[in-house]
């Protein structure tokens, strides 16, 4: 058992042909991805972040291990991967970090099959499916599914803190000012917050309340992550 595990985890990539050796490396990558996600969640616990991002870290760890199996020491495959990802980067618009991971997953599966390594594709599919299922039903941060972006345009001379803070304190549990910039050639100020609404408050209620505040010209509320 010890010899098999040593060969499975430390043998050169080009020598890995058995499905059990491939699976062993992907399982270790799965565990390593969880550790990375845990460290991220601990280090960013005071910041409002999307609940899908820790899951993305796990998926990316598995996918990088998968791609490494496919490429090995083949320089042509490495350049092929760079070209494929360049097309994805500039031709595909994605709103969620996890969407990026799934696109890379599709590229990696295609490469592994095209390189004559369907076992790598199959084992990786099982690993990614397991990780995706876990994060679907057990998100890293349940509350972060309600994180949203609040964009408010104020008239020139209005202080965002003085105008918006009373309303935000009443309707949100957490808020984080992320952007302040001028608009309309300096005639207005745009501010953007990440907010976490109170459970009993709806987006429409918050928007209506802010819209009643003197000096507010425009309000936009949009969810940062998906609920599904």
UniProtKB/TrEMBL annotation:
UniProt entry tagged with the keyword Transmembrane: yes
TM stretches of this protein: 22-41, 48-68, 74-90, 102-135
Entry keyword Transmembrane: yes
Keywords for this protein: Membrane, Transmembrane, Transmembrane helix
Protein known as: DUF4956 domain-containing protein
């Amino acid at each position: 058992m010890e010899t098999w595990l040593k060969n499975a985890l430390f043998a050169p990539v080009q020598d890995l042909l058995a499905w059990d050796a491939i699976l062993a490396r992907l399982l270790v990558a799965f565990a390593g991805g969880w550790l990375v996600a845990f460290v991220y969640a601990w280090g960013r616990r005071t910041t409002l972040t999307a609940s899908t991002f820790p899951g993305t870290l796990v998926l990316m760890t598995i996918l990088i291990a998968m791609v490494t199996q496919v490429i090995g020491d083949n320089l042509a495959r490495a350049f092929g991967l760079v070209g494929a990802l360049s097309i994805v980067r500039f031709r595909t618009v994605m709103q969620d970090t996890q969407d990026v991971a799934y696109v890379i997953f599709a590229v990696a599966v295609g490469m592994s099959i095209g390189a004559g390594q369907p076992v790598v594709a199959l084992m990786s599919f099982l690993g990614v499916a397991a990780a995706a299922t876990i994060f679907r039903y057990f998100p890293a941060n349940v509350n972060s599914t309600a994180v949203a972006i609040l964009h408010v345009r104020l008239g020139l001379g209005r202080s965002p803190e003085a105008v918006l803070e009373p309303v935000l304190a009443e309707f949100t549990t957490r808020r984080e000012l992320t952007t302040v910039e001028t608009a309309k050639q300096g005639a207005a100020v745009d501010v953007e917050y990440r907010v976490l609404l109170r459970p009993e408050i709806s987006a429409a209620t918050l928007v209506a309340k802010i819209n009643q505040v003197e000096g507010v010209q425009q309000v936009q509320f949009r969810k940062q992550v998906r609920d599904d």
